[in-house]
Amino acid sequence: MSDIVIIDSGGANLASLQFALQRLGAQATVSSDAATISAARRVLLPGVGAAADAMARLRSHDLIECIRALRQPLLGICLGMQLLYQHSDEGDTDCLGIVPGHVARIPEHGLPIPQMGWNVCVTLRDDPLLRGIGARDYVYFVHSYAAPVGPHTLASVDYGAALTAVVRRDNFCGVQFHPERSAVVGARLLQNFLEL
Predict the structure, then answer these.
(1) In this structure, is the dihedral angle defined by the CA atoms of residues 79, 54, 63 and 149, taken in order, positive or negative?
(2) Nearest CA-CA partner of 83 in 184, 195, 7
(3) Which residues are annotated as catalytic?
(4) 14 to each of 47, 80, 180, how far by Cα in Å?
(5) Please, are residues 184 and 147 in contact by the beta-carbon 8 Å criterion?
(6) Distances (CA, A) of 114 to 89, 111, 126
(7) Considering Cα of 14, then 17, then 19, then 21, what sign does the dihedral take?
(8) What's this model's pTM, rounded to 2 decimal places?
(9) What is d(CA 95, CA 50) in angstroms, rounded to the nearest whole number?
(10) What's the structural domain count of the chain?
(11) What is the CA radius of gyration of the chain?
């Protein structure tokens, strides 16, 4: 049994996430096996690509109910965070339904889509996941779809509109940015997750 499991969602960022955890002294296993995921003490759900493809991959490995039933901390990253919501407009996709609300394309306000690069993560509520992270620290984003700010939003990002940057509902956490690419701030967030 591995203490930390990264769900193999087919994304290209699996290795970089493993390396980011290794730098913190944590070894993670990549798996799409429901029993392995259920037995882990911490679970990460990364994602790169389209919501419909990612949900189809999870479904093909019978992981939908497995993920919904988890009681240990889970961290969704980028698309992985979006999959925690009920629905995504990207491909008109039903998602995991853990966090109320839906994900939509970022509104075009004269800004390039996707949002790609560093932006300020504005803390809205204190949470152990954000311990030691400044109220206006910079993190690295790459995304075309996003969730609006809602009752479970812990931090937001302004990209023509206020969007959810960090979300948490019970043991399910999510970040729209890439902590494995967000230098010291991203490392601190991953460390906080490992300590939840």
Answers:
(1) positive
(2) 7
(3) 78, 178, 180
(4) 9, 12, 10
(5) no
(6) 15, 9, 28
(7) negative
(8) 0.96
(9) 12
(10) 1
(11) 15
Q: pLDDT tens digits for the chain (196 residues)?
A: 479 999 997 766 788 999 999 999 999 999 999 999 999 999 999 988 899 999 999 999 999 999 999 999 999 999 999 999 999 999 999 999 999 999 999 998 899 999 999 999 999 999 999 999 999 999 999 999 999 999 999 999 999 999 999 999 999 999 999 999 999 999 999 999 999 9
pLDDT tens column, 102-158: 999 999 889 999 999 999 999 999 999 999 999 999 999 999 999 999 999 999 999
Domain that holds residue 166: 4-194
Q: Which tokens sit at 186?
A: 């991203």
